[in-house]
Every structure is written in C-alpha cells, then in structure tokens.
Design brief:
about 220 residues, alpha/beta, Rossmann fold, 7-stranded mixed sheet, globular, binds S-adenosylmethionine
C-alpha cells in the first residue's frame, strides 16, 4: 500500500514547526518533549512521520537509537539541517529513511513506536490500518507514544470552541497537504481496545489556564 500523496507536506516543511508553535502556543512541541523522559538509553525507537523531527532529535540526544521514517523529502531536509546544527554528538546516529511507513518492515521490532501528530493525517479507516501496521513494528511489552489533539470535551460550549479550533487545522491541512477529513480521535480508547495499557497521560493547555486541547500518551503493549 502506498500513501504517496502525503508527500505534499514538503510544501510546508520549512515553516511547519513555526506554524505548529504559533497555532498551539508551543503546546505541540511541549507535548512531544514531555515524552522523552520515558525513553531509556539504547532503546530502539521508531518515529513515524516525524516531520522536521524536533522530538526525534531530543530522543537521540537522550541516548535512544532513533529511526525516522518520513515520506516527505522536504521534511527530511529540515531534519538533516536540525541534526547538522546539533552542538553535541548523539551516542547513536539517527537513521533516516525516506519512505512510506506502510512499506517499512524492519528485521527486528522496535522497543518504542512514536506517532506524534501523525495518525491525524488519515481518515478513520486508513488511520486504523496505519495504526495496526505500526503495532506490528512494536515488540511485546514495548511502548507506543502518541501526542496529538485531545478528544472532544463533554461540555457543549467547550466542545463547540474545540471543534472550531480543530477543524481550522483539519481544513488547512486538507487543502495544503491532502490530509483526511475526520473527527477528533480518541487515541487512548483505540490503544486500550487494541490491548494496550495506558501508563501515563498528560494534557497540555493553551496558555497558562486555557483549554486542555492537546494530549500526550505513553502506552504499553501486552
Ligand atoms: C502532521 S505532520 C507531523 C509531523 C511530526 N510528527 C510533528 O509532530 O511535527 C505528519 C507527517 O507525516 C508524514 N507522513 C504522512 N504520511 C506518511 C507515510 N505514509 N509514511 C511516512 N510519513 C508520512 C508527513 O510527510 C508529515 O511530515
């Protein structure tokens, strides 16, 4: 299966991190950075659809053995710049793979698979297929990390504002990158339904006391 159309992310690659910071008041970066404390030195970690790889590079700096599989050549070019600008040498060089992650079949499963702001690229059915594939790349007892939009709030007014905020991004990336159209996903529910245990979960607020519209999850595979 090929998802080559997602290569359209190259168009926004040079400004993607800037846009994400501005749109989320830095919470997208924060939700990814938070995960790094749960990585152990020497662990084999896959970053699927890593974009410009701010999280993957932090993981490598913390001593993880990082592999990035990214479809967009433009995003990989940004990652290469980021690696070149590093002031410290990582214990293990980052492996960069320019490919569709659906075609990625490593010899050994990973200790950790990370899908940050990646599964939301796909419409519901394709998202399940991509998740299932990523699950096959993870060893038993391994960890799945997901940072992404938090699920819909119960309060009617809160949910309305959240929808407006979320669908602004969905619409822009549908036009710019050809992303799928879909509702807010409940990744915790999906992980539990697929036999994972949620070990840690943290919500991130817009501003100091704004709404908690971002969530980072650490889950273990059983
Ligand atoms: C919304 S961006 C998120 C990037 C990054 N994870 C972050 O948090 O900033 C999604 C990324 O997934 C990549 N992508 C989309 N489909 C892919 C696929 N099938 N295989 C690998 N990467 C893919 C895109 O090129 C893009 O860089």
């Amino acid at each position: 299966m090929t998802l080559a159309s997602s290569n359209r992310f190259s168009f926004v690659a040079p400004i993607y991190d800037f846009l994400a910071r501005a749109y989320s008041f830095g919470m997208i970066a924060e939700s990814k950075r938070w995960q790094v404390q749960y990585l152990k030195e020497g662990e084999r970690v896959l970053y699927a659809g890593a974009g410009a790889a701010e999280d993957a590079v932090l993981a490598a700096k913390a001593g993880a053995r990082v592999t990035i599989v990214e479809l967009s050549g433009g995003m990989l070019a940004q990652t290469k710049k980021r690696i070149k600008a590093l002031k410290v040498e990582c214990a293990h060089p980052i492996v960069l793979i320019h490919a569709d992650v659906m075609c990625h079949t490593p010899e050994h499963p990973y200790d950790v698979v990370v899908a940050n702001y990646f599964l939301n690229v796909f419409e519901p059915r394709l998202m399940q297929t991509v998740f299932s594939h990523l699950n096959t790349l993870l060893r038993v007892e391994g960890k799945f990390f997901i940072a992404d939009f938090a699920p819909m709030k119960a309060n009617k007014w809160a949910a309305m504002c959240q929808k407006l905020y979320f669908y602004t991004a969905v619409t822009v990336f549908r036009v710019v990158a050809g992303n799928g159209w879909h509702p807010l996903y409940d990744y915790s529910g999906m992980l539990v339904n697929n036999g994972f245990r949620i070990d840690q979960k943290k919500d991130f607020r817009l501003g100091v006391c704004g709404p908690a519209w971002y969530r980072s999850i650490i889950a273990s595979k059983h």
